């Protein structure tokens, strides 16, 4: 497949490889139902709606959504039970993607990690924000802005491996990973720079495959050729990064939200590291972001089936 360079191209690609099936945990959520309906109309995804059937019907009726287009699994044992049933639809192979509805994140993840019916792989779960920023010729993948708070080096290795799989599913055969820090030199007093240097060496020695890593790099050196040239940085990654690997949740969360609120562009988000892509959106996310998140999951699931 060709490299997807915008989230508009992603939507077109998801239509080509879709529709794939999404299992929605606690689907009695208006915003999520609207996103799922948009994805269905676009030919990107179909859905299994798990939760209180009466509540799902009530919300769908208010939105003008015809439930005859969906399979509804009526589970009234509470949100934890509904989440587990939704997860089981994916682990059994009946659905390709899991999506969070009106369920507490803790209950949702407990179902995902269930030893018998869950989606464990032995890998770390991590979050990826996918940004299409006006003025750039490529998509940026930011990780981890939401799940792992202060990852140590082994966790960062897993986070990189997870996001590289996402980039591969977007047609980027060898994504360029910038291990970010506040500076571009190794400083023993700044632990993120030590981790970045270790990731680079592990990549060079074949311990982290499918990508090229450089770091530590400050953000400007990662995305701007001019800034990298000014600092005298000679690197395949500097100025050309696809993946922005942040040192901790604060840096990642602020960066991702700064892009959303200060820049023009489009955004999607996924949880990866499980047996299937997981769409876990926020209520503050726009309808477009929810649709693009489903499309991202479809792209990744389709790539995984090859």
UniProtKB/TrEMBL annotation:
EC number: 2.3.1.19
Residue ranges of coiled coil: none
Keywords carried by this UniProt record: Acyltransferase, Transferase
EC main group: transferase
InterPro entries named in the record: P_Ac_Bu_trans, Phos_Acetyltrans/Butyryltrans, Phosphate_butyryltransferase, PTA_PTB
Domain of life assignment: Bacteria
Pfam families xrefs: PTA_PTB
One GO MF term: phosphate butyryltransferase activity
Family per similarity comment: Belongs to the phosphate acetyltransferase and butyryltransferase family.
UniProt-recorded name of the protein: Phosphate butyryltransferase
